[in-house]
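$ ./design --mode recover --in tokens.txt
reading tokens...
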């Protein structure tokens, strides 16, 4: 017996706000360049998020957990963060299964089983989009081929030369270019700054801009506290006027 889920579109904001590695989409043997920062990871989005040693479902920000929960229609009141993380991860996996029309069988007794099917379905779909033949190719090799082709395609779209450059190097160049574009738009000087430092400044500027627009008192509050206030208390207003973290996609 099979349970077949219909088609629905994942919320586009979940593509932007990828401070978590829920689906472990690209399980390929590369180290993530300059990762471990929500804004850095949001630049590339879930399609370029690689599985890392820290494990699936790792959230870099409690505020982002709450945002994902709200976008998914999950109640956040009176729940500890670990419970909320687990619910968000499960919902993201099930939504992805629905989006990809993954057939869930009765023997799929865990989220891990379903996640593996979603992972494979996305690889095959992306391979088709990129014109990569998946016949007689094992899943690990196909995932690597797709990842490399996808990174190369995005680099070319951004006008980045790809000759003699590996995927790891291209990924870092793409991140640098996109984050520097954001910094330039905010009139933040990038010279001499590490990518992580620059990303932090960009995110801080965006959060403070949003707080100012929403009339939030920021005195004595950290950026994380302000972001939490935006998501918890100003969610509808922030989303309706399109301030961070609801600006739309970066790519």
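writing sequence...
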């Amino acid at each position: 017996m099979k349970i077949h889920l219909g088609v629905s579109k994942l919320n586009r904001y979940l593509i932007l706000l990828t401070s978590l590695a829920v689906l472990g989409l690209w399980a390929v043997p590369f180290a993530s360049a300059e990762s471990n920062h929500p804004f850095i990871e949001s630049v590339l989005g879930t399609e370029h998020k690689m599985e890392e040693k820290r494990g699936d479902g790792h959230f870099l920000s409690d505020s982002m957990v709450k945002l994902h929960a709200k976008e998914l229609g999950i109640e956040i009141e009176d729940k500890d963060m670990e419970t909320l993380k687990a619910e968000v991860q499960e919902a993201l996996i099930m939504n992805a299964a629905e989006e990809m029309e993954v057939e869930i069988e009765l023997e799929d007794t865990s989220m891990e089983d379903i996640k593996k099917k979603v992972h494979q379905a996305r690889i095959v779909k992306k391979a088709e989009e990129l014109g990569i033949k998946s016949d007689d190719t094992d899943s690990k090799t196909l995932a690597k081929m797709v990842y490399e082709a996808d990174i190369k395609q995005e680099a070319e779209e951004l006008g980045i030369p790809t000759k003699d450059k590996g995927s790891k190097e291209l990924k870092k160049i793409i991140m640098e270019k996109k984050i520097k574009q954001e910094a330039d738009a905010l009139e933040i000087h990038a010279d001499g700054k590490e990518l992580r430092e620059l990303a932090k400044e960009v995110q801080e500027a965006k959060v403070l801009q949003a707080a100012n627009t929403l009339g939030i008192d920021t005195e004595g509050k950290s950026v994380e506290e302000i972001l939490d206030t935006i998501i918890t208390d100003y969610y509808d207003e922030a989303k309706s006027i399109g301030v961070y973290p609801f600006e739309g996609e970066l790519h």
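exit 0
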